[in-house]
Amino acid sequence: MNAGVARGRNRRPSILLPLLALALSACGADPAGREAAAKPAAAGQPIDRVETAQRLNAMRGQAMAGDQAALQQSVAELDRDLRRAVRLVDPERKIDRENARVAAKSVTGVRSAVWVDDENLLAIVDRNAQRSYGTIDAICTRLEPMGDTLGVVVNLQSGAARNGDELEILSRNCELPPGERAVAQSHRQIDVLPPQVRAQHRANADAALAGRDRSAEREESERIIQASTPEM
């Protein structure tokens, strides 16, 4: 009996060591990599009817048993899930703007963050590559413990931009696919240059590069005009 216990004790280090190594490797992992891997909550997903029926049955049982605390919690959870399914922001869980701004600045690569209005958070990143949906995910994940991120649209702009295309702002609601917004949430245009203007500038530049050089003709025309114009 004692020998068996001793063997069991001897086996423990061999089991704990791999777990300890795994925990240490996770602690030493690149924080930027962990941020990029984290995915925020997703709204707009349909409610599972079977699961909802089971939850309603559980709520009936809680009501019959007189368990008011459990019933209130179940009602609150169901209300939250229904709101997210129909993309309706919960006004009772509004995120504190200043705390959110500070949290956004703590994300790797974010140089500064400012609220444009009650819904739009504008963040400037250090490099063009950091103007990505991965950075938006990292910001939204930081904001989740603060309240309902369905009410937040994150806008990213590169601080290293050198042209109009690189200045383009990448926007997304924290819990919805690109281009979608929550109920009653506006599609605010925050870009310095609208997409149509940038496209026209690109077209003009391409046309100028494709056309032949007419500078010599212009110089000759100007010389003729000057020669034929009498002095005043």
Overview of this protein structure:
Keywords: Signal. This is Lipoprotein. The chain is of the alpha+beta class and 232 residues long. 53% of the residues lie in helices and 9% in strands. Among the domains are: 44 residues, no CATH class; 105 residues, Alpha-Beta Plaits (2-Layer Sandwich), CATH 3.30.70. It contains nine helices and four strands, in the order H-H-H-H-H-E-E-H-E-H-E-H-H. A four-stranded mixed sheet has the order 1-2-3-4, with helices on one face. Strand 1 and strand 2 form a beta hairpin. The longest helix is centred in the first third of the chain and has 26 residues.
Provide the residue-averaged pLDDT: 76
The helix fraction, in percent, is: 40-55%
**CATH T-level topology of the domain at 93-197:** Alpha-Beta Plaits
Largest sheet: 4 strands, mixed
In terms of topology, how is this protein built?
Elements: H1 2-27, H2 31-37, H3 49-65, H4 68-85, H5 97-105, E1 110-115, E2 120-125, H6 133-143, E3 153-158, H7 164-167, E4 170-173, H8 195-210, H9 215-228
Parallel strand pairs: 2-3
Antiparallel strand pairs: 1-2, 3-4
Helix pairs in contact: 3-4, 5-6
Biased composition (Basic and acidic residues): 211-223
Signal peptide: 1-28
Keywords: Signal
List keywords for this structure.
232 residues, alpha+beta, Alpha-Beta Plaits, 4-stranded mixed sheet, 4 strands, 53% helix
Brief account:
The protein is α+β, with helices and mostly antiparallel strands and 232 residues long.
